[in-house]
């Protein structure tokens, strides 16, 4: 990921690579333009020509991610460290750079760690900056002694990092009575983020008229912003931890924390200890495990085979999503694809296609899973009226071929793997349940494969189900309404791997010509008189059963002895 640099980084880079004579003309808090003009350090590499000659945007200084002791490559990497550079190159709206060894003293006080990148604001602002400084309502970096004492009627606020009044944090400073002022704290630019990316920070919002705050994503060249967190009014005299899911974002983005003043602002709003976890892309390697992983074509990273054709670019070059079958994938960007709403009376209402947040506050996702922004679509069940408690909505997949086929003398042979992947969000205090069924007839629910109950947090979760059937089958996704309006449930990015579509419909009644094995029993071809192992259907002699030795790989020949 490419990040805009904080003050500490720029100061070091300028002292090394800029003309030392020109530096004396500007203060240590300013950048010297080519024509001698001084601009604030936070104005460098912000995609704005503040110098009027472009010099603050030409040889900009960014942060990159690189493995410890590794080489800088085009792809973002796992186990990252943040590194300074001599200059950055513009490639569209993304920028990349050479790397320096981890452990350089310039890393102190900026972003720390490897898998987790953190900023505590003790030594610098780490690239976070106020969008419109000097308007009388600004985010500034400081300590408790910088907070006006009339902002609160309790002892000075300690920062979260050190828990004392000497520590630093970002806070709102208001010295104007103008109405509708907007303080926006913008973070560094990120090139992209991996699917497991989360952002955690500590927020303080206390006072009788402290107002609300929003955190939103801003994309280069996109007008609309995507809100990913909000807080309303007084949250008490304490630091509150917040974790938001960024997920897989494939374009440059920036995070902003916005605060609006309506002329009356009485309280303290502060921001500290921001960290990003699991946000870098997988590391390039020479060889991947042959049967369980896929070797990405360009980035040379390894991704699990179950991540292929799942509508998520896990490689960073899209190669894990090439050659897929679109008829067994659905991201809901163009409707329901091959999925259908239940129409035979098995449910009460339908799933709803939506983009952005659901209408009810404190329930449902803020954004879709596919695009990671407010423009992406997903399906959800609305738990408000007219829906009632335990009303259900059912979604039907296309019909698939059996994964087992009959062989000679009625013995069933295993044909192929078949996996179903899906993402779900169950956020809200009144969430009831989400369930997945597999059926072999045109009516009824069939076999329950998976179910989840209750609030699972404001996150998109991924799940994989391995499917087995001796008959053509279909998947049902059923959402059930809770006992109040904060119970919205959402699904997105449904995909099948190694499943073959069936050219036909399911029968109305169960009329099998052959008796398949029970759902919990794997078909086998052991001769009569031999013991069938439980997990994999291996064959062992009856004399080897209960002989104190595990002849079956799962040890089932030594159970129930």
From TrEMBL:
<feature type="disulfide bond">
    <location>
        <begin position="26"/>
        <end position="38"/>
    </location>
</feature>
<dbReference type="Pfam" id="PF00057">
    <property type="entry name" value="Ldl_recept_a"/>
</dbReference>
<feature type="domain" description="MAM">
    <location>
        <begin position="328"/>
        <end position="501"/>
    </location>
</feature>
<dbReference type="InterPro" id="IPR051560">
    <property type="entry name" value="MAM_domain-containing"/>
</dbReference>
<keyword id="KW-1015">Disulfide bond</keyword>
<feature type="signal peptide">
    <location>
        <begin position="1"/>
        <end position="18"/>
    </location>
</feature>
<dbReference type="GO" id="GO:0016020">
    <property type="term" value="C:membrane"/>
</dbReference>
<dbReference type="InterPro" id="IPR036055">
    <property type="entry name" value="LDL_receptor-like_sf"/>
</dbReference>
<dbReference type="Pfam" id="PF00629">
    <property type="entry name" value="MAM"/>
</dbReference>
<protein>
    <recommendedName>
        <fullName>MAM domain-containing protein</fullName>
    </recommendedName>
</protein>
<dbReference type="InterPro" id="IPR002172">
    <property type="entry name" value="LDrepeatLR_classA_rpt"/>
</dbReference>
<feature type="domain" description="MAM">
    <location>
        <begin position="117"/>
        <end position="281"/>
    </location>
</feature>
<feature type="disulfide bond">
    <location>
        <begin position="546"/>
        <end position="561"/>
    </location>
</feature>
<keyword id="KW-0732">Signal</keyword>
<dbReference type="InterPro" id="IPR013320">
    <property type="entry name" value="ConA-like_dom_sf"/>
</dbReference>
<keyword id="KW-0677">Repeat</keyword>
<dbReference type="InterPro" id="IPR023415">
    <property type="entry name" value="LDLR_class-A_CS"/>
</dbReference>
<feature type="disulfide bond">
    <location>
        <begin position="33"/>
        <end position="51"/>
    </location>
</feature>
<dbReference type="InterPro" id="IPR000998">
    <property type="entry name" value="MAM_dom"/>
</dbReference>
<feature type="disulfide bond">
    <location>
        <begin position="309"/>
        <end position="324"/>
    </location>
</feature>
């Amino acid at each position: 990921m490419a990040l805009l640099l904080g003050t500490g980084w720029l100061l070091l880079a300028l002292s090394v690579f800029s003309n030392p004579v020109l530096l004396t003309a500007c203060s240590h808090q300013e950048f010297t333009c080519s024509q001698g003009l001084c601009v604030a350090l936070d104005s460098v590499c912000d995609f704005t020509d503040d110098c009027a000659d472009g010099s603050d945007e030409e040889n900009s200084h960014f942060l990159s991610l690189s493995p410890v002791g590794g080489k800088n490559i085009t792809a973002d990497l796992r186990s990252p460290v943040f590194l300074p550079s001599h200059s950055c190159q513009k490639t569209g709206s993304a920028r990349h750079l050479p790397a320096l060894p981890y452990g350089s003293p310039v890393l102190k006080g900026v972003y720390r760690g490897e898998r987790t990148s953190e900023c505590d604001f003790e030594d610098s602002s780490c690239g976070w900056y106020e969008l419109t400084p000097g308007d009388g309502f600004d985010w500034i970096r400081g300590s408790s002694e910088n907070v006006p004492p009339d902002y609160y009627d309790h002892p000075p606020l300690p920062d979260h990092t050190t828990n004392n009044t000497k520590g630093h944090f970002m806070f709102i400073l208001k010295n104007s009575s103008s109405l509708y002022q907007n303080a926006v704290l913008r973070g560094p630019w990120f090139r992209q983020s991996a699917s497991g990316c989360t952002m955690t920070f500590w927020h303080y919002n206390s006072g009788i008229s402290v107002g609300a705050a929003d955190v939103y994503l801003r994309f280069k060249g996109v007008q609309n912003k995507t809100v990913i967190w909000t807080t309303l009014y007084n949250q008490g005299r304490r630091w509150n931890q917040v974790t938001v899911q960024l997920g897989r974002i494939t374009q440059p983005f920036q995070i902003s924390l916005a605060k609006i003043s309506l002329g009356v602002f009485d309280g303290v709003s502060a921001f500290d200890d921001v960290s990003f976890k699991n946000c870098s892309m997988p590391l390039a390697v020479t060889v991947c495990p042959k049967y369980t992983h896929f070797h990405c074509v360009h980035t040379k990273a390894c991704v699990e085979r179950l991540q292929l054709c799942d509508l998520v670019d896990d490689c960073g070059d899209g190669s894990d999503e090439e050659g897929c079958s679109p008829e067994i994938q659905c991201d809901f960007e163009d409707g329901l694809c091959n999925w259908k709403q239940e129409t035979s009376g098995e449910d009460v209402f339908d799933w709803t296609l939506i983009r952005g947040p659901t209408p009810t506050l404190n329930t449902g996702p803020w954004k879709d899973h596919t695009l990671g922004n407010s423009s992406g679509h997903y399906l959800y069940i609305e738990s408000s009226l007219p829906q009632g408690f335990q009303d259900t909505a059912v979604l039907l997949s296309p019909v698939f071929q059996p994964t087992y086929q009959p062989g000679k003398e009625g013995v069933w042979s295993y044909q192929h793997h078949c996996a179903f992947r899906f993402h779900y969000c169950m956020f809200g205090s009144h969430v009831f349940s989400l369930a997945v069924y597999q059926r072999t007839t045109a009516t009824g629910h069939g076999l329950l494969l998976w179910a989840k109950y209750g609030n699972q947090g404001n996150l998109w979760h991924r799940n994989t189900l391995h499917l087995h059937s001796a008959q053509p089958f279909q998947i049902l996704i059923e959402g059930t309404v809770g006992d109040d309006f904060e119970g919205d449930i959402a699904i997105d990015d449904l995909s099948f791997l190694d499943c073959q579509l069936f050219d036909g419909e399911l029968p109305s009644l169960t009329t099998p010509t052959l008796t398949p094995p029970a759902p919990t029993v794997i078909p086998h071809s052991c001769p009569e008189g031999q013991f069938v192992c439980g997990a994999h259907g291996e064959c062992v002699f009856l004399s080897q059963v209960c002989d104190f030795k595990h002849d079956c790989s799962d040890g089932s020949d030594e159970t129930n002895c």
